[in-house]
Design a protein that fits this description.
This protein is of the alpha/beta class and 215 residues long. It has helices at 42-49, 76-79, 95-102, 110-116, 132-145, 162-177; strands at residues 3-10, 12-13, 16-17, 22-27, 31-35, 57-63, 80-83, 150-154, 181-185, 195-198. The longest helix has 16 residues, at 162-177. The protein is globular. The structure holds adenosine-5'-triphosphate. Keywords: ATP-binding, Cytochrome c-type biogenesis, Membrane, Nucleotide-binding, Translocase, Transport.
Length: 215
């Protein structure tokens, strides 16, 4: 079963670490809630795990996971869904086409995924026409149409109403019960049985002192 490992990992911006090096492992079925004040580095950590930012030092990898071709794969970026602040939905694509694009064997089909987040009637709208909460729901539906062992979630309940937040919690609990791994940055509890990584506000800015010289 897959295990997510952080090996003396430091994350940050412009090569400057936002927190001390971290050794941590998350086994299948485990969740990590990354908490802390604005600017503490929660998103930076998740983006680093997703492979969107290079680590300042150390490494993170997934062990014990094989991709669809049956090859062992250590890159978290290949094993994870990343749900960032932006939903990354193609604006001109219709919702059903967006989900069909991401659909993979073993995932829910797009109609089932839209039912799971309770927005079945948006299926023919272009993504640009969705409200903020509808777009977030569709982005969550995308997690369901392609099975991946890790979900990296950055403020996943942002823009969601109470019903959708409850659904998201249930989907996360179901994913964990099936052996998934979740790392979620959150200001609001997601209702999960999760370990907490509490980040502090960094003492120094991650922006180099000469970084604002053009302003
Ligand atoms: N694109 C960027 N370039 C340089 N520094 C950045 C960039 N984005 C964020 N930072 C800096 O990195 C630090 C951590 O930001 P980050 O977004 O990871 O914090 P966060 O804990 O997710 O905050 P929030 O709770 O507000 O979402 C902040 O000091 C911020 O100024």
């Amino acid at each position: 079963m897959p295990t997510l490992r952080l090996l003396e990992l430091t994350w940050g911006r412009e090569g400057r670490a936002l927190a001390p090096a971290l050794d941590l492992q998350l086994a299948d079925g485990e969740a990590l809630a990354v908490t802390g004040p604005n600017g503490a580095g929660k998103s930076t950590l998740l983006r680093t795990l997703a492979g969107l930012l290079p680590p300042v030092s150390g490494a993170a990898r997934i062990d014990g996971w094989r991709n669809a071709a049956g090859e062992e794969e250590a890159r978290i970026s290949r094993a994870a869904h990343y749900l960032g602040h932006r939903n990354a939905l193609k604006p001109t694509r219709r919702v059903c086409a967006e989900l069909a694009f991401w659909h993979r064997t073993g995932g829910l089909d797009p109609a089932e995924a839209l039912d799971a987040v309770a927005v079945p009637r948006v299926r023919d709208l272009p993504c640009a026409a969705l409200s903020a909460g509808q777009a977030r729901r569709v982005a969550i539906a995308r997690l369901l149409v392609a099975p991946r062992p890790v979900w990296l979630l950055d403020e996943p309940s942002a823009a969601l109403d109470a019903d959708a937040t409850t659904r998201l919690s249930a989907l996360c609990r179901d994913f964990l019960a099936r052996g998934g791994i979740i790392a979620a940055a959150t200001h609001l509890p997601l209702g999960l049985d999760a370990r907490e990584l509490r980040l502090r506000e960094p003492i120094t800015s991650s922006v180099p002192s000469d970084g604002w010289s053009d302003w």
